[in-house]
Design brief:
This protein is an alpha+beta fold. The N terminus is likely disordered. The basal body constitutes a major portion of the flagellar organelle and consists of four rings (L,P,S, and M) mounted on a central rod.
Length: 374
């Protein structure tokens, strides 16, 4: 039998806690800003190539990184310094780097951005270096920012008596407020007095509920679903009124539809995570010395004569699991995969056994959910 400290037992304990939190309660209302985003309100990635100088002998080895030498020669020529023909530069305090950052939505010229500086050569460390003025370009090739400043490198490195210790990456650093925005990205927000909401996950039911909630709050015809992901919303014409409208729109509470049934299993640790939409159908599985049988038992409840009630049919799962034809665990509850997993753990099934059984149940059509193995 699996011990309480086994990886499978720990994974199943967490699984059952998640299942208990999911099963009893209904859909919980969430803010619209957590379910959808406004089209056009997004970040834009920026990137630039530059040089870091002032390193203490930890720069690129120029014999193996010729682009560093070419960059230095080109920079000196732009500054009016012409090197004699055939000059061989031996640079130890310079490193070629890539500078990356993200341009926030509605960023304006003069705004400061944090940048990440990463070595692209064989520099040992960027600590103590200074990034020279580096243009930051977007996907369209236009310059949207300029970066420059002293690099802060996290982590430490030490060397003594022929041994070295390095913690964290010394070839990556960060400059807080190291870039200045030079160009703003044009925004079409509110064009033609409409905005578009894009759901984070495509779901027709959730899109319908969002439209209904918006129309109930702001009036009929305010919102209309274009498909299962995009919703068109009528907005005020004035910028101040539009901002206030979007603020109220983001705070609107919506109950999202139940997600599609899905089971995720980590084959290395035996961790199993499922949502409340997972259901099981009748099946019988034999795997090694394990035998799993799942059946659905229907119970009919009839009202008393002339009581005016209705006949109610309830279904419950009957799960029969055996090992070595010895110990038998019989569970009667709602058709829940958590019951099967718990019973398998109780008789000592390994993560490999559990994985094989789940795959067999999926192939047989008993596991009505998407099975994802990571």
């Amino acid at each position: 039998m699996a011990t309480p400290t086994s990886p499978l037992a720990r994974a199943l304990s967490a699984l059952l806690l998640c299942g208990a939190a999911l099963l009893p309660a209904g859909a919980q209302a969430e803010r619209l800003k957590d379910l959808a985003s406004v089209a056009g309100v997004r970040q834009n990635q920026l990137m630039g190539y530059g040089l870091v100088v002032g390193l203490d002998g930890s720069g690129d080895q120029t014999t193996q990184t010729p682009f560093t030498v070419q960059s230095v020669v080109s920079m000196l020529q732009q500054l009016g310094v012409n090197l004699p023909q055939g000059t061989s530069l031996q640079l130890k305090n310079v490193a070629a780097v890539m500078v990356t950052t993200a341009l926030p939505a509605f960023a304006q010229p003069g705004q400061l951005l944090d940048v990440t500086v990463s070595s692209m050569g064989n520099a040992k460390s960027l600590r103590g270096g200074t990034l020279l003025m580096t243009p930051l370009k977007g996907a369209d090739g236009q310059i949207y920012g300029m970066a420059q400043g002293n690099i802060l490198v996290g982590g430490v490195g030490a060397q003594a008596a022929g041994s070295s210790v390095q913690i964290n990456h010394l070839s990556v650093g960060r400059i807080s407020g190291g870039a200045t925005v030079e160009r703003a990205v044009a925004s079409a927000l509110g064009e033609n007095n409409t905005i578009r909401l894009e759901l984070n996950t495509t779901d027709f039911s959730t899109a319908s509920r969002v439209v209904q909630a918006i129309n109930n709050q702001f009036g009929s015809g305010t919102a209309a679903a274009l498909d299962g992901r995009v919703i068109r919303v009528q907005s005020p014409s004035g910028s101040d009124q539009r901002v206030a409208f979007l603020g109220a729109l983001e705070a609107l509470n919506v109950s999202p539809a139940q997600m599609a049934a899905k089971v995720i299993m980590n084959a290395r640790t035996g961790s199993v995570v499922m949502n409340q939409a997972v259901t099981l159908d009748s099946c019988a599985i034999s795997h090694g010395n394990l035998s799993v049988s799942i059946g659905v038992d229907s119970q009919v409840s009839q009202p008393n004569p002339l009581s005016g009630g209705q006949t109610v049919v309830t279904q419950s799962a009957q799960i029969d699991i055996k090992k070595d034809a010895g110990k038998v665990l019989l569970l009667k509850a709602g058709a829940s995969l958590a019951e099967v997993v718990k019973a398998l753990n109780a008789i000592g099934a390994s993560p490999q056994d559990l994985l094989a059984i789940l795959q067999a149940m999926k192939a047989a059509g008993s596991l009505r959910a998407e099975l994802e193995i990571i």
